[in-house]
Design goal:
mainly alpha; 3-stranded mixed sheet; two-stranded antiparallel ribbon; 23 helices; 5 strands; coiled coil; Peptidase M3A/M3B catalytic domain-containing protein
Amino acid sequence: MEINFTRLLHIRERNDWKKAYDEEILKLDQLYQEEERLYYEMYAEGKESTRLDEILEIKNMLMTNEQLKENILSWQETMKDDPIWFRRLEVFLSQMIKDSLDSHPELVKIQQSLQKRLLESTFFLDGEEYNISRAHSTMIDSPDRELRHKLLSKSKEIGERNEELFRTLIVMRNKLARDLGFNHYYEFRCSLKEIDYEMYLSEMNEFLKNTRSSSSSWNHRIKEKFGWEALQYYDLYFTAFNFHQIQSEEFTAERMYDVLKDVLNSLDISIEQIPVTIQSLEIPYGGFCTNINPEEIKVVVGKRDSFSAFVTGIHEMGHAIDGYYSSYQFPELYRFHSSIAAESIAELFQTISYDKEFLKNNFKLQEEDYAQIEGANQLMNLLMVKMNYYHSLVEYKMYLNPEQNFQELANKCYEDVFGYQGDTFHPASEMFYIEYPIFFQDYNFALASRDMIRQYFHIESLYKETEVFEKLLEILIKPNQLFSWKQRVEKVCDRQHTFGYLAKSLSKIESETSDK
């Protein structure tokens, strides 16, 4: 079943062109499904396949075909009278434009070189060998503050060695974006995501002002608990995951399926009727969901006996429900989904993790456990929003001025976001900037959308909120990319998108009793 979009170039009759486009889109989606299965096997089972390289080459040849792009642009212009077809072609063209820029041969060469350097860079510390990934995970888990500081310093050295090549990547991305009429690459990617980055920066500054008191309160409690004089970058992830001690023999990995079953039952969904496989596996990260198609969905959660594993599992089940109920009528709208919409749905599901009724129904906990979980929820949200903003601010300003010293920039942005000077990361050591550019702000848009929805429906979590869920299915999930993420959220909430409700929920100053 060979993909042959080039035949579209020779069709003149509108209905014939539509029919041929539909046929080729179905074939293309079969290729994407094959790719998703192979990636699942690689991440879940450690199987690697050379077929992935072949698929990448096929996709690149198609998505960088300038004649095809011009042909689709031309037909889109003639279909302004048909909103569905206009939107379908808009989404597909958006993906073509992104892929065309990001697969530029010189750009790919630089990116792959950086990826290789970061993946292969190792260092020894106290007799132990670390790479960037292990250093980061240790900074999350290790209570040894001196070790965390040393790991950050060593990681920064890797970034310093790669700074000039990383700068070359930033400059090249900017040049290619300017060739398309944008001021810089950050603006280019934000336009594809249908977000206003200037409004985002403005709203996040307001968020920092509105949460200043709660941030100050948490900083005081953290420094008092751990005996630190200041909260450093290498403390942030450790604090988010370890400030509260949520320990119970109830949180065992083998209970994951039954707990997720209850989550779905509370929304009148039978887990047996959803085509999803759920696995707890030994993986070096929290978990993931692979939506191959609405009838083939894979959820994998790291095999850990901890409350955080269930938070991850419920989050990933949100992605699975999104993948199952999203319309597959137009495969390109299913495949080229909005990451902001997808994360909004997953974050809404994640609220169930902290719902007291859900916890009581599934775990035997002490009263102090609920206080710990409630505190952990607020602290995690507050720190992660600020960290996401911090990383997105650094990224934005790198593209705004690629010639500046990146370490000095990271230090300055840290002070701007957290309110004090600190020892921070080096941007050229952050793989996300290389592999998934302009992504950090998506998480914050998703969290803001989540709290808009919670405020509008006057709920704290989705647990047993079947009427709310039905509304979300109808407006937010099923249409998928037929409408932008923003249009869908604003239709659900009957108001313009705002970060105000997120700031409101995170500005509360919690009781300190949960620290004990």
